[in-house]
């Protein structure tokens, strides 16, 4: 028997080293936690009192199955983050909804599944010499491509490979990804815990490393505003931000499904996370 299932994927059955820090922290609070592969057929999800999604880093290959699993788990124990958040946040068109609520995002063209798109024409129309093309259901930069005006043909081929079966996003590449860089703010149960300056994705700077930083007031303000727009306060959230070339602060992603949280760089966040889980378990026991 155990209290907390830390949902992971088959390639990380014992979790990654970062998320595994939660196991001893929860044990100190009298809670037995263990990693459980989310789509392992033998698992009885009625056993734990709570399931916390942590390293389900293959869900984007089978989103429908993942959401069906999440609905099943939510019927048997307390699932965090909750199902309504998962349904919305597993498809990147949620960014379009946030933009409609006044959030400044990276400029985006929303390419719907099956559409006929001429990439060169779109880049010329918007005066974009470098763009990022990505599926709307994606994680860990899966099928994400940086396209320059010199390799539009490769980008068009990528588009024609993925767009027939997937919604996609087309965005200008922001050069600040490699200068001032992307910055991630982490929140646990609505409370800001730490911020990270991110090494550029897509191997744009192989020598760069993620590092702990101090969040700026405008970053905190935007992040806290974002959390108020959600239907439910999440147990964990990561707000990925960037300043564009004009200095405007923009949202890149609001990660609410299975974000990496760099817990090893912020030991106090591990304690706060464990405390938050323990509080929710206590509330659940009181309700029962």
UniProtKB/TrEMBL annotation:
State the superkingdom. Answer: Bacteria
Q: What is the lineage of its organism?
A: Bacteria, Bacillati, Chloroflexota, Ktedonobacteria, Ktedonobacterales
Q: What protein name is recorded for this chain?
A: Prokaryotic glutathione synthetase ATP-binding domain-containing protein
Q: Which organism is it from?
A: Ktedonobacter racemifer DSM 44963
């Amino acid at each position: 028997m155990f209290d907390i299932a830390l949902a992971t994927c088959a390639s990380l059955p014992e979790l990654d080293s970062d998320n595994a820090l939660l196991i001893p922290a929860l044990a100190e609070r009298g809670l037995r936690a263990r990693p459980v592969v989310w789509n392992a057929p033998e698992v009885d999800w009625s056993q734990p009192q709570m399931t916390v999604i942590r390293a389900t880093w293959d869900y984007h290959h089978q989103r429908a199955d993942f959401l069906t699993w999440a609905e099943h788990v939510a019927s048997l124990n307390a699932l965090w983050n909750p199902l309504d958040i998962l349904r919305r946040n597993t498809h990147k068109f949620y960014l379009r909804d946030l933009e409609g609520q006044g959030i400044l995002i990276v400029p985006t063209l929303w390419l719907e599944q099956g559409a006929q798109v001429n990439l060169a024409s779109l880049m010329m129309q918007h005066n974009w010499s470098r763009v990022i093309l990505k599926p709307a259901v994606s994680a860990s930069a899966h099928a994400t491509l940086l396209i320059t005006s010199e390799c539009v043909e490769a980008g068009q081929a990528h588009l024609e490979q993925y767009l027939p079966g997937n919604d996609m996003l087309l965005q200008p590449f922001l050069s600040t990804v490699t200068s001032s860089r992307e910055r991630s703010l982490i929140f646990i149960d609505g409370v800001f815990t730490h911020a990270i300056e991110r090494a550029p994705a897509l191997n744009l700077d192989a020598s760069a490393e993620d590092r702990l930083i101090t969040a700026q007031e405008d970053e905190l303000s935007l992040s806290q505003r974002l959390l108020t727009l959600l239907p439910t306060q999440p147990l964990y959230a990561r707000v990925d931000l960037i300043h564009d070339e004009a200095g405007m602060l923009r949202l890149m992603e609001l990660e609410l499904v299975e974000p990496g949280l760099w817990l090893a760089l912020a030991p106090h966040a591990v304690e706060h996370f464990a405390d938050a889980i323990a509080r929710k378990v206590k509330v659940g026991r009181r309700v029962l």
